[in-house]
Amino acid sequence: MNTVTDRGTLTGRATTAIREVLAGGPRGPRSLLLFAGPAVIASIAYMDPGNFATNIQAGAGFGYSLLWVVLAANLVAMLLQALSARLGIVTGRNLAELCREQFSPPVVYAMWAVSEVAAMATDLAEFLGGAIALALLCKMPLIAGMGITAIVTYAILLFEKNGFRPMEIVIGALVGVIGLCYLAEMLIAPVAWSEVARNAIVPSMPGGGALMLAAGIVGATVMPHAIYLHSGLAQSRIASNTASERRMLICFSNLEVIVALSIAGLVNMAMVIMASAAFHADHKDITEISTAYQTLTPLLGAGAASLFLVSLLCSGVSSSVVGTMAGQMIMQGFVGFRIPVWLRRLVTMAPAFVVVALGVNATQALIVSQVVLSFALPVPMLALVHFTRRRDLMGEFANGPLTDAAAIAAACLILLLNGVLLLETFGVALPGLGV
Predict the structure, then answer these.
(1) 3-state secondary structure string, the chain?
(2) Is 7 part of any domain?
(3) Does the predicted model carry a pTM greater than 0.70?
(4) Where residue 281 sits, what CATH number does that domain have?
(5) Which whole number is the average pLDDT over 130-153?
């Protein structure tokens, strides 16, 4: 990661101001903004095009019934992302670097291989999502949309050369656009708010495949690259020299995780709410992004349909940028070297071009990518829980009994639901799940 420290730069001024707060300077709302950034970038993983497909299917097929699942999944994500940031702050190393230091070479190279496949699968979903949105929005061939998306994401990646702050602002702005689009959708769609409130806090499982879809929502919520990335962003943003500074950084980090992932959770809930309000009554079978867009136009108007595509485009572009950043961090951490950004971008987006060239259904490719991620997720998640509970690495900042129990329970839950999702994908019938 870049470590620009010149006080004349945006990053340099932010670093100086952060140092002043850590040294006992004035605190307030502005201080919170100074420390904001890493969780905002990581939160993009929870608003990527894969989430769009799953949430639209949930809302169209089961109405508001699965909103509580989205909320629960978001709480699990908050815990794991907070632990990832804490790992980077306390140890001064990211998760991939610790894996290289603590595990044997065969294990490290196996973990790296799995993580690289996951990075490609992640970028496949993100890149295709942005390209689909651009192709529908501008009435162009999908392959042309992919080319433009590739250029835009590469241009945004160049901001990283100027330090962490410009990139954080760009990603934060894209997150803001996604949020505003769905806020507008909520004002347009005929939402039954009493039903939204009830289903957000009262668990229910309507049957007819709802449990399987719930497994998909939770099992695909935590992205492998987000776990790796957050530890690296927290590690390299500002060095902590004392235990009190680490404690303060962790406090600010936890607050940012709560705010950033709450916004991501609200966006995901808004996706389900919009799909439920627009499709559940008469279009329960909608599962594809392009079909959702085409159906939205006569139901809610061209404005609502366009907002849907704008949010998808911002999601695809921003998450693709973040996925490339994570891929660089994973490679550097596991094997100790970086490759040029343009080459990294080329390698990770190649599968998407192959998929389109072969004529594979784009939405189906998004679903397959989530299955690949289900195989890869245990690698960083279990490593994270293992490292953050070790006092020889974390000292006084190791997980306490309650945090440890919650982290282990969350990991077991996600592993279980990933297993259910994978078994269903490969046609294995499971008693009681319904189809």
Answers:
(1) CCCCCCCCCHHHHHHHHHHHHHCCCCCCHHHHHHHCCHHHHHHHHHHCHHHHHHHHHHHHHHCCCCHHHHHHHHHHHHHHHHHHHHHHHHHCCCHHHHHHHHCCHHHHHHHHHHHHHHHHHHHHHHHHHHHHHHHHHHCCCHHHHHHHHHHHHHHHHHHHHHCHHHHHHHHHHHHHHHHHHHHHHHHHCCCCHHHHHHHHHCCCCCCCCHHHHHHHHHHCCCCHHHHHHHHHHHHHHCCCCCHHHHHHHHHHHHHHHHHHHHHHHHHHHHHHHHHHHHHCCCCCCCCCHHHHHHHHHHHHCHHHHHHHHHHHHHHHHHHHHHHHHHHHHHHHHHHCCCCCHHHHHHHHHHHHHHHHHCCCCHHHHHHHHHHHHHHHCHHHHHHHHHHHCCHHHHHHHCCCHHHHHHHHHHHHHHHHHHHHHHHHHCCCCCCCCCC
(2) no
(3) yes
(4) 1.20.1740.10
(5) 86
